[in-house]
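Sequence of Diacylglycerol kinase family protein (Hymenobacter guriensis).
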Amino acid sequence: MPLVADSQPRRFPAILRQRAASFGYAFRGVAAALRTEVHLRLHAAATLVVLGLGWYFKITPGEWAAVALSVGAVWCAELMNTAIEAVVNLVSPEYHPLAGRAKDVAAGAVLVMALAALTVGLLVFAPRVWALLGR
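Predicted 3D structure, token representation.
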């Protein structure tokens, strides 16, 4: 019996290329935000400090999970805020009260998440820092 060539084109490699490209676009977006957003650079610095503290104090896996989720949530909120600001600026180059409200609410989401992350950081690190200072 002769072998019949598959009549369906091989799409698997194309799908992999598309997925790889989407990761590239995502990394490009994060890099662009880091270049243009001062607050995101502050969050990046805070991330490095928190990772260093976690390593120094040998926090537990559960604490690492809480810290990682908090850091990730702040980064996500800041990136979404940046995206919302860009779109609002595109569709409403002149001031409009609704455009201002959208930007304020997006910034408020970052603030709320950053305060929640700060709370996690205090719960995880404050007792250790306090003990280190001999208090």
